[in-house]
Structure formats: structure tokens, C-alpha cells
Fold this protein.
Amino acid sequence: MTKETDIKITEVALRDGSHAISHQYTVEQVTAAAKALDDARVPYIEVAHGDGLGGSSLQYGFSKTDEFKLIEAAVSATDFSKIAVLLLPGIGTIEDLKEAAALGANMARVATHVTEADVSEQHLQTAKELGMETVGFLMMSHMVSAEKLVEQAKLMESYGADTVYVVDSAGAFLPHQVKERIKALREALSVNIGFHGHNNLSLAMGNTLAAIEEGATRIDGSIRCLGAGAGNTQTEVLIGVLDRMEIETGIDLYKIMDVAEDIIAPILQKPQEIDRDSLTLGYAGVYSSFLLHANRAAEKFSVESRDILIELGKREIIGGQEDMIIDVAAELAETNKTSV
Amino acid sequence: MTKETDIKITEVALRDGSHAISHQYTVEQVTAAAKALDDARVPYIEVAHGDGLGGSSLQYGFSKTDEFKLIEAAVSATDFSKIAVLLLPGIGTIEDLKEAAALGANMARVATHVTEADVSEQHLQTAKELGMETVGFLMMSHMVSAEKLVEQAKLMESYGADTVYVVDSAGAFLPHQVKERIKALREALSVNIGFHGHNNLSLAMGNTLAAIEEGATRIDGSIRCLGAGAGNTQTEVLIGVLDRMEIETGIDLYKIMDVAEDIIAPILQKPQEIDRDSLTLGYAGVYSSFLLHANRAAEKFSVESRDILIELGKREIIGGQEDMIIDVAAELAETNKTSV
């Protein structure tokens, strides 16, 4: 178990949480939240569209407010906390990164699919040149073995990532799987190891503790679980749990509880819970963005959306292969016809 | 890890969940839920007031429907599932137990504070004589050491309990603590070991997996987390997780997901989430029934309700000692005055 200090928390409600409120953050909300998080002494606050810089689009959903305005507001509202941005190469650009840095963001988290770390090289190097702290963010980490994960993480380390995150984008990991992966990374890397959990299987907290037990020291949380799918590891609860374990985060427990209750809860359109859809996504281990496509295909072919999603998980379909959803639905319809 | 079959689930939404809806279950709701749970092949369904047989009262909250009518309805609605009742000696009586058995309930769960197993003797023995399957239910198990827990569990075993449950009434356990306790019980007892979790620290699922890893084979869940505090281990999610781990429960995943979405979710007055109050209760490790008293005392003495609850946890105040709440509030007010 980690001693003394040194689990550093990144609060993602103002980025991942943007999914949960259809990217409708206002400058006023971000200012109020960032100020209160700063006062609670949260080390990093991530601010961006849910899909990272440049995410505001027809495909990913338009933001109500230009994300650079939100980043600027968060920078202005904070003294202690550092502002982080997420960037998915292909969605966000080097220019976006430079603009964020110019506004005062000082951590760049460069996210790729777990098998595509090589596309992060230029962005991580640029972030370094801009003087930013750098994070490599391996999304959908549950889709590969520990060995493959180590290989990809080492690429990010070689590009200059100060931290490499195991990202459970679909909320699909089980605690023993997290342990195995964090342990393997801890043995292979010199840089910090991070963990970003989702709660689709009600294991965000359990997995986070498993990660910490094996040596992860950078942890993502979202206040009131505000995030994609069933949301993330609930920050204020995590601070309470770590406090009970005498693991130091530097964050004030009462203040972070109050941010949750008084600032974030009122923003929520509906409380985060694990419903049939988010459970199915976690069980299948697929991106939450597949849900809408699967529901449409299910209706068209008169098959179960759940069957489609689970089959997509088995076939290891990833973002960008959404056209496979129709194929799978058609095949399931054909199988159902044959078996009647 | 447990092989093949043999995690037997008890669904508690129609008992512990009664807390979450102010004991307002109707015969129609219980009939619909029990029928659907039976169809999903849930082995045990617990039906009673949230505080067990006889709980309907000014002190614990009046039930909308006489609980024996609900038990009768559940028995009528089920073929496969067995109906369980909870009984806290001192609240429910031997006569209540006999009436439940006469109506067809065939599992008696006799619950005591973790240090008071001796009061369960007569009730467990009567349940046995009535031909019921018997469970000893050690509430607030987090308040004692593994050694003390073993001592109390052995008492219940000696009274004829077929299963002894570790009950995390306050949602205060951490996974390593659960492991230690289940392991100690597994080594000391011959009967089944059960685990009943609450989600106040977002660890109901993580703790449940920890318990299973150490040999617990009887697990409580509540559909859609419907239970006291932040609710329980979410049954339909647990079935998905265990299925992913190839641990057999005999429960149909799709059907249990559908019970959650189509029958239980519409009954909920508001979704279960971990708010400031439930987090405080789990962090402090005190009964959820203390909350209202603490809030009142906080207002009267102009102190923080959280400070009161945390102090009550430190002093290991238990149900029946509610008069201590005022004392603690007064002391905190005095301390605040002195320190100003």
C-alpha cells in the first residue's frame, strides 16, 4: 500500500463529465467548479469537450461553450490546481494543443486506442516543448493483454510521457485484471502509472484500489460520477476511502464533498446510475458511443440491442468501425431466422 | 475463485429496498417483482419491512401495506424462488416468525448487532423447528475485529444457523478488511458464509468480490441498489460481473436486467446515488438511522452534522444509544467555543 502522500488526483468532471450533460457546460459553471476544486486543493482539473480538444462537432456532439473559453475560465479561477486538457490525435490537433497551452493549461493528456500509442508521438513531444506535464492515455486498455499494454506504454514513455494511464474506457475491467496490468507496467516503466476507471460494472472504486495497491499513483476521479457510461470513480468518495486507508491526497474531504453536493449535483440533468444500457456496455466491453448505433440497428433488424453490443465486444470492434454494427445486426437477424 | 455453480443470491430489494421508498410497497408491486425475479431464477427473495418483521412502527416508519400481505403475495407469485424474511429480535417476535412460516416463507434471517449474537438463539432454533432454512445476520460487522466476529458467528452456528452473514450495514468496509474477516470465518466455521454489502463508499461490488474470493457463497444484492444508505450491491450488475468471471449463479442475466429496468426502476422515487449524507455515514461507519438525529442536533447546537456522525463512529455508538447524539453535539459546540 502506498505510504504517506502521493496519490495525485485528476478531476475529470469538467471533461469526461461533459458527456453526461451533453457538453452543455457554461463559463459560469466551470468557473464555480474550478474555483471550489482549487479551494479543496485538487492537483489537476481536466477541462475540454468530452472527446477532447476539437471534439465539438456533429459526430461527437456540439459544445454549448467554446472549450477554449472554458479552459480560460478554469485557468483564471485557479491558483493551486493545474489545468489539464485531453487530446485525441485525429480529433484534436497540435494547433489546439498550442492554443490550450497559451491559455495556461499545463498538463497535456494525449489519448489513443490501446494499440495505437504510436500516433501520440508528435503530440507528446510538442506538449513537452510547450513546457507542459505530459500524460499518455491508453484507452480501452481491457482489450489487450498485459504484455501488449506494456509494449504500448513503453512507446508513450519513450515519446516523453511523464505518466502513462491505464484507461478502462468501457468500465469493463475486473479487479484482478487491473492488478495484473498495473503490476506489469510498474515492473516495466520508470514513469508514473495512472488509472482511469468507469463504473459500468460498479467496480470503478474497487478497480481504483486494486490499481493503487499495485503501484498506480495518478488516479482520475469525477465528482458525483459525472462521466461517460455509468460515470467514473466518484472523486469525493475516493478521497474519503483513501483517507480511511491513511493514503494522502492533499485534498480536503469536507470541501470536496461540498463541491459535489452544492456545485456539481445541481448541474446534473439526472443522477448517474447503472442502468440496462450502461451495464450492457460494461459487460460487452465496448465504447458507449456504440449504444445509439446498436439501438438503431436493433430496431431495423428486429434483434436485441444487447446481443449486438455483446457480439461487437467479442469481435473487438473499436471506434471508427461503426459500420460493423449493421453487419452484426444483419447476421444476428439471419441467425435468429434460421434457428426458428 | 469459486468454481462451477454456487454463489446463491438473495435479492433484498423487497426488504432493504423498502427503506429507499419509505416502506411504501404495494401488493401489486411485490407481486410483479417477485414473479419476474422467480422467472429470472433468483434463489431467495427477502420480503419484509426494512427493519424486519414487526418493523412497521412510529420509530422505524409505518409500512403502507401489512408486511404479511406482501409475504403472502410473494409466496403466491413464485414457484422457483424461496421467500426469506428478516427478523431482528426485539423488533420482531417469535409469533411473527410463525406467521411468516405459515404463509410459506421458508428462510429465516435472524439479525443482531455484531456483538449480540446470543439474542438470536431462540429465534434460530424456532425457525429450525418450523422447517425453515436459517441465516444468522451479523450487522455492523465492521465494528469488531476478525476474532470477535468469529466468536459471534460460532454462536450463531451453534444455534443452528445454516449460514452466517457478514453484514456491512453502514457500507464502511474496505476490501482488505472484508477479505480478512471472511477468511477467518471460512477457517473457523463449517456452515455457509454470506456477505451483505452497502455502497456508501462505492465499494459494495468490490467488497462482494473480495468476499467471494475468500470463500463466501451466499451473497445479497438489491436490484438497482434499492436499499438503505447508498443502497446495496446492485444485483443485476453482480450477475453480469460473476458471469464474466465464469462463476455460476443460475440467474438469467437478461431477465434480471429487465426486472431492474422495467419493474424496479419505475418504483424508485429517486435513483440511488452516493450523496454527501450517505458518504458521511459510510466514512463514519454509523447506522443511516443516525442521520436525521444528527442533523437535528447539528442545527440545535450550530455544529456540523458530519462532525457529529464521525465522532459517533469513533465512539462506536450503536442503535439504541441515540441519546448520545445530543451529548456529542453539545460537546462539539463546547469545543468549538473554546477553540475560537
Summary: Chain A touches chain B through 44 residues (CB under 8 Å). Chain A has 14 helices and eight strands.
